[in-house]
Write a structure and sequence with these properties.
The chain has 6 helices and 7 strands; from the N terminus they run H-H-E-H-E-E-H-E-E-H-H-E-E. The chain is α+β, with helices and mostly antiparallel strands and 212 residues long. The radius of gyration is 19 Å and the shape is globular. Residues 161-170 have low confidence and may be disordered.
Length: 212
């Protein structure tokens, strides 16, 4: 699929009309959505937290956060949403699987974008908390009723089908994010006020210092 999409986009098979380019853009968007869903389903195939293989190492959040933000801003964002991040320059590195933590943060950021409001804000932050580092994604979105908080981590489950149709998604991103966080020996916390916003957070241990 990717090969033929690239050939069409490069007009290697002939020139495209305005209508054909528009159709190709829809095809590219659908492919990216399908590719993301396949990746998520592969993650979901790990039945337990213990089966998730972590390639743990020293991770500098000062370098990781800009990558997460850049990925979010590379996607179409509606509603004039302001995305920001904050990490102290002297924050110590954390011990984690960089790729999986980046993926999990991407899911939290995507959700914050999907369920935010016109002119809303999203803030990704990190701060030292004892020997651990707390990471949080806070938004000014729709919020989640207290009695529904436990349901958001159920796979293939959406709180409101109408919201699902509006925002899109298969309902497995938070399930996988929770598993990744737990595989790191942490817990994904959620605080939310309907109509005002939601804050997801978890902590990671500081990276081990090896003296030679």
């Amino acid at each position: 699929m990717v090969g033929y999409i690239d050939l069409l986009a490069a007009e290697a098979l002939g020139p495209l009309s305005k209508e054909q380019r528009s159709a190709l853009a829809v095809l590219e968007k659908s492919y990216r959505r399908l590719s993301g869903l396949i990746d998520n389903l592969l993650f979901l195939s790990f039945d337990t937290v213990e089966s998730l293989h972590l390639e743990s190492g020293s991770v500098k959040l000062q370098e990781l956060f800009p990558q997460v933000i850049a990925q979010c801003k590379a996607k179409p964002v509606k509603g004039n949403i302001v995305i920001s991040h904050e990490v102290p320059p002297d924050l110590p590195p954390v011990q984690a699987d960089s790729n999986k933590v980046e993926w999990a943060l991407g899911q939290l950021m995507d959700n914050a974008i999907k369920f935010n409001q016109e002119g809303g804000r999203i803030h990704l932050s990190a701060r030292k908390n004892g020997r651990r580092v707390e990471i949080a994604v806070a938004d000014t979105g729709e919020g989640i009723p207290a009695e529904k908080l436990a349901e958001i981590f159920e796979p293939f489950h959406q709180l409101d089908s109408s919201t699902t149709r509006k925002a899109g998604g298969a309902g497995i991103g938070l399930t996988l994010t929770k598993r990744i966080v737990e595989a790191h020996g942490s817990k994904l916390q959620v605080e939310s006020v309907p109509g005002k916003g939601t804050r997801f957070s978890f902590s990671l241990p500081q990276a081990q210092v090896i003296y030679e």
